[in-house]
From TrEMBL:
Protein's organism: Methanobacterium subterraneum
Gene3D superfamilies found in the cross-reference section: Glutaredoxin (3.40.30.10)
Name by which UniProt lists this protein: Thioredoxin
Family: Belongs to the glutaredoxin family.
InterPro entries reported in the protein's UniProt record: GLR_AS, Thio_glut, Thioredoxin-like_fold, Thioredoxin-like_sf, Thioredoxin_domain
Lineage, top ranks: Archaea, Methanobacteriati, Methanobacteriota, Methanomada group, Methanobacteria
Pfam families found in the cross-reference section: Thioredoxin_3
Keyword Plastid annotated: no
């Protein structure tokens, strides 16, 4: 099963690049298991509102916000494995 990963960011956020970097690293280590979409909340506000986001970075897996803030590589890998095995 491919896990849809949505990364919500903002250009002015100092922590967003770390979240993107973690997602990119995990994507390289788990090829074919993730479909990644990076969403700039300044461009696509509707999706952030739909998810009730009040802060970035935020990461949703299969339509459910799992992280607000940049997770560690281990936390993200574990959450993706969990989603894959549902």
């Amino acid at each position: 099963m491919v896990v849809k990963v949505e990364v919500f960011t903002s250009p002015s956020c100092p922590y967003c690049p770390m979240a993107i970097e973690v997602v990119n690293e995990v994507e390289k280590e788990m090829p074919g298991t993730m479909e990644v979409e990076k969403i700039d909340i300044m461009v696509d506000r509707e999706k952030a509102v739909e998810y009730g986001l009040m802060a970035v970075p935020a990461i949703a897996l299969n339509g459910v916000v799992r992280f607000v803030g940049a997770p560690s590589k281990e936390e993200l890998t574990s959450a993706i494995e969990e989603e894959k095995n549902k």
